[in-house]
Amino acid sequence: MKRICVMGLGYIGLPTASVLATNGYQVLGVDVGARIVETVNAGNIHIEEPGLHTVVRAAIGSGNLRASLEPEKADVFFLAVPTPLTADKKADMSYVCQATERIVPFLEKGNLVILESTSPPGTCRDMLKPILEKSGLEVGKDIYLAHCPERVLPGKILKELIENDRVVGGFDTLSAQLARDIYASFVEGEIFLTDVTTAEMVKVIENTFRDVNIALANEVALLCESLGIDFGDVARLANRHPRVNVHTAGPGVGGHCISVDPWFLVEQFPDTAKIVHLARQRNDGMPHHVVERTMEFLDGVESPKVAVLGLAFKGNVDDMRESPSLDVIKLLEARGVTLAVHDPFVKNADIDLLPLETCFDGADCLLLLTDHNDYKYLNPRQVIRLMRKPVLFDTRNLLDHEDWREAGFIVRVLGSGRT
Ligand code: SAJ
Fold first, then answer.
1. Known catalytic residue at 203
2. pTM, two decimal places
């Protein structure tokens, strides 16, 4: 099986297509975006990810990777398209369905189709199989179907693509084995075979596990604020227990995975997935809490201005999908607060991004929302000279608070009831 067609050239599809191409496969990357296709064919990238440009350039240079708007015949088809949420928190499977429909005319006996997109358990069996069989070929007999969910962390995609263990779920045993052979050509971690629905559930549960744990950390943070103690101390000391791992509290959970996937279970099993649902609500409620506390610091200030540090959903990435910063900004604006927003990584945001000095100028509160490393190097003695009111609200517990206090700041930390 030498020819591979990868549907979707995003955060997962492009790195996967490039790594496959540099491992000797003839890869066609397909995307609906003409600009993306053009960019990739020129050996360039349209997303920010360390090391990706080098691999794409090498893959295009080798002649093993091409990009196109249209699929072609291949031995293996990868589906790596988004599975976002609709406005009412239901799985939007339209991209997966469209991508699957588009490969149907090209399917031939012996082909393997691999779904990489995170999907509600049951998707391959109940949604993909009937679409693929419109080709007249039977899944499990004429063609093969597997789910191998991506599990890479944005910012470390190329390393994790190769080093992480993988779970490969097959519609039948042969499907799983065929998919395993493809991944074995570049994965250095262990590859575990299972059935297709188990693999779908494994992926959704990985992100749900993290969401529920972060929700617990956020809840403990709120309790600590009420108790007048510090979440940072509580988590650090509790984590000295060999079986405890309290996660990090913050302004909410963003990204296109952890804040999305648990809803798949809530949609499918509303009566059973109760803890999952509550965790989602707790994490989604954090931006409101951040805004309430910020408004307390602005009490009595006329025409308040807040300097917002960080738009990305987590530190050191340019990705602002589902970022809690977007909610915080919307809510503060609705309260009539003037905002000046900075992010060292994000480009092409709808929100105007300003240089740091302009943000600090005349501000009444410095609201740190994203744990970008760059912010650790801010000099509070310089910042304080520009601000109107020296208040720091650190929602990521990132900065050296002693230093900021010594410089003259009133420092408040999410999860800390200390004043
Ligand atoms: N966060 C906290 N507290 C924590 C950890 C994270 O508030 O203790 C926040 C972050 O600031 C961020 C969000 O949660 O807003 C999620 O960030 P993340 O770095 O934990 O995860 P993602 O969304 O970048 O990537 C996740 C990963 N899944 C797991 O770690 C279980 C990754 O392996 C998956 O491939 C990816 O989702 C995906 O595509 O599903």
1. yes
2. 0.93
